[in-house]
Amino acid sequence: MTPPTTALPSAPSGRVALYDPAYAADPHGAYERMRAAHGPLVPVELSPGIPATLVIGYFQARRILNDPLYFPHDPRIWQEQVPAECPVRPMMEWRPNALRSGGTAHARYRAANTTAIDAVDQHELRDRVEKIAAAAIADFITAGSADVLTQYAWPIAFRILSSLLGCPDEIGARIADGMSRIFEAKDAQRGNEILGQAVADLVALRRSHPADDITSRLIAHSAQLTDEEMGHQLVTLYGAGIEPLTNLIANTQLKILTDDEFSAGLHAGHSTVRDALDTVLYTDPPMANYCITYPPYPADVDGVLLPAHQPVLISMAACNNDPAIARAPGGIAGNRAHLAWSIGPHTCPARSHAYLIAETAVTHLLDALPEMDLAVPAAELRWRPGPFHRALESLPIVFHASH
Known about the structure:
Elements: E1 16-17, H1 21-25, H2 27-38, E2 41-45, E3 51-55, H3 58-65, H4 76-79, H5 89-92, H6 103-118, H7 122-140, E4 145-147, H8 148-165, H9 169-184, H10 188-208, H11 214-220, H12 227-241, H13 243-258, H14 260-267, H15 273-283, E5 289-293, E6 299-301, E7 304-306, E8 312-315, H16 316-320, H17 323-327, H18 351-368, E9 373-374, E10 396-398
Parallel strand pairs: 1-2, 3-8
Antiparallel strand pairs: 2-3, 4-10, 5-8, 6-7, 9-10
Helix pairs in contact: 6-11, 7-8, 7-18, 8-12, 8-13, 9-10, 10-12, 12-13, 13-14, 13-15, 13-18
């Protein structure tokens, strides 16, 4: 692990470099130093030469997220100045979907997505997660060791999402490959191409062979989504579904393995896996910095002028831990006041499903391997660099093998 440093990782422009591995190694230390140097609004670079403002103040974030008129999510003017090969562009560029739209377009896309997602049967979903979790554990239970990230959390997120979307394994594997390239911000342009072709193939399959799945329900919705629009809805669902869910499961398991007090409370019944999930969503959410807006005019936030058409990112991780929350009249109660699912018109429409999948996956692993331990000291775990996610490279565990 890169050792923590007392200096902020700096780009040549003088902005904080969120792409620097030193930031990934110690983000909470970086947020403290950002707060001391810049206050709640921090000038950052997302990749070399791509400036943005990172919002690390909880109350400033709430104002921005609840004001889609002055802080819309449409990046089209911004991206005119950004080369296609820019590694963060695929995570930020305009797509005809709810995440990157406002007004009537947002309402149309949002309605189609919520209708398709809300039709998922929660009892069937829990059963499906348990079966996939059991199959994943069966693959490594005799080994006495495993990587929770690659052998458990990722297969569950991938197989569940493919199942919910009615996606065959072959297409799903290409989608996962494209998504991982985009999240890593390495070879992202190629990842975008792979992803685009794969979702187009899935749309074509479900148009000709509809079934009881989210993709088929999106196609059948009265919004009458075109093939292009369908592809971009699926990109959003996969983007929100595989990487963040994988990392939520892994980061929660890490919390349980490394926080002795919390683990003791869990085993004694004083706390629950749901409490563990909320603690992670509060302190180390899998999407650390996102919820990107692009103000069409210079925007004054607490005396700081944010440039027009320059990205404004919300740091869910930093905002949740803003000391100003504790100083607010009456405070803000409980770990569920976090911004990990966003707030306002772009709140995650699948949060109840994500909670259920992650809670079931973590509970199943704890039941199957009650005496697991980290295979390496926690300080040796490595976090993947990148401006958006909080993601481990691996989470190796050891346990008594079952024969």
